[in-house]
Amino acid sequence: MIYLDWAASAIPYADEIEAAYREATAVFANPSAQHRFGKDARAMLENARSRCAAVLGVSPETLYFTSGASESNSLVLLSLLTRPSAGSLVISTIEHPSVREQAAVLEHCGWAVLTAPSDKNGCITPDAVLHTLRADTMLVAIMGVNNEVGSVQPVREIARALKAHTAGKRPVHFHADMVQSIGKLPIAELGLADVDSASMSAHKIGGPRGIGLLYLKQPFSSGIRGGSQEHNIRPGTENLAGACALARCLEKTYTDFEQKFERAGELSRFLIEALHRLPECSVIPTARISADMAEAPALAEASPRAFSPWIIQVSFKNVPAEIMTRCLSDRGIFVSAGSACSSKKKNRPILAALSVSPEIAQNAIRISIGHSTEKSDLEQLIAAVTEIVKDFN
User: Fold this and answer.
1) How many other C-beta atoms are found inside a 10 Å radius of the C-beta of residue 37?
2) Where are the domains of the chain?
3) CATH number corresponding to 2-10+256-392
4) How far apart are CA 191 and CA 189, in angstroms?
5) What does the alpha-carbon distance between residue 288 and residue 151 come to, in Å, rounded to a whole number?
6) Which of 174, 325, 357, 383 is the 20 to 30 Å CA partner of 226?
7) Would you call 311 helix, strand, or coil by DSSP?
8) Any idea where the Aminotransferase class V domain is (predicted)?
9) What is the Cα–Cα distance from 184 to 164, expressed in whole angstroms?
């Protein structure tokens, strides 16, 4: 098996997850119970929170356990419904469905949803955000790294531009979906200190499914009722085993991270160069082909890194994405046709936002690598797609 769908879900750190579940199973009381056993469970939960905070460089009081990034994103966006009157919010043209579809819910409730455009390289610039704002804008949601093409957004620069723009006025809440950022970029480049809120999922970094984090610089009313857990932000009995596993896997992810990140860069460059040599292959966006980013000066200036090395999007002439993924799957090589959260949908709004033609978009697949990906895995992928493309052309 050659697994190249890490952006959908990473290969789990099984030892860490099993150890966490053993620990949590031994302390099975409800963390909200007032007896000593419940307090032991509470202590374990808070220890997990503190460990996550230590890795991310934030205060434990700013982290809230959720079921994952989709729920975290929903909590932030739907909190707008607690405001006394509707206004507007800004999202980008390349947001994940968990943001885009919640924005549609808010629009149905009377909120105006404004869209900041992406350039052809998948970058949302600070100017694009500022030009989209209105006087009644209360929230801006821009993802940290795009989940389909891997473009790294200038989160810190957008946050600072928003702060300068609203100086002396009502502040605008800035939320960042960091699912493909946390565990994939160096801590110093995340921009957590600059945003008001952020989301992540454990299963994207080798943790279990069903657990994630919401970072909130300042607490707010989420509008969700049903219990006082997580300081009234996210009601429901806490997933103690998941929280402990998340802490362990986050620590594991950032152990020797510099070497892992450097190696990912080497692998992605090797793959892009090899695929670019195939006449039937289009790399999306084309700026990824150029090492000096000459085709994307604005993107290069906006962010210290233009693209995440873990995600590569390519399209093959005359081979629809569904057929390519099936043919590769039959060979034991697993990639995806776009985001896992929208894989059953035919349209590709993110690629359309990058002005990718429908012909190229319908053939586009996402290749995403991880810390255990080997060069030999990519060599087998290249050989396989070369054979498949030859058969179809």
Assistant:
1) 12
2) 2-10+256-392, 14-253
3) 3.90.1150.10
4) 6
5) 9
6) 174
7) strand
8) 2-381
9) 29
Cβ atoms within 10 A of the Cβ of 97, count?
A: 17
Rounded CA separation 93/120 (Å): 11
Match domain 14-253 to its CATH number in 3.50.50.60, 3.40.50.2300, 3.40.640.10, 3.20.20.140: 3.40.640.10
| Residue 291 pLDDT exceeds 50 | no
- The pLDDT score that the predictor gives to residue 340 is 56
Going by C-alpha positions, the residue among 244, 146, 248, 142 that lies closest to residue 197 is 142
Q: What is the pLDDT of residues 173-207, one digit of tens each?
A: 999 999 999 999 999 999 999 999 999 999 999 99
DSSP 277-298: TSTTEEEESGGGG-TT-TT-HH
How many Cβ atoms sit within 10 Å of the Cβ of residue 275?
A: 22
Burial status of residue 294 (CB atoms within 10 A of its CB: 0-12, 13-18, 19 or more) = exposed
Give the CA distances from residue 371 to residues 1, 84, 177, 255, 276, in Å, rounded to whole numbers and listed in that order. 16, 47, 22, 11, 23
The 3 state secondary structure assigned to 18-35 is HHHHHHHHHCCCCCCCCC
Count CA atoms closer than 13 A to 250's CA, side-chain side.
26
CB < 8 Å & 24+ apart, contacts of 373-382: 373/4, 373/6, 373/264, 373/267, 375/267, 375/270, 377/2, 377/4, 378/267, 378/270, 378/271, 378/274, 380/2, 380/333, 381/2, 381/4, 381/271, 381/328, 381/333, 381/335, 382/271, 382/274, 382/275
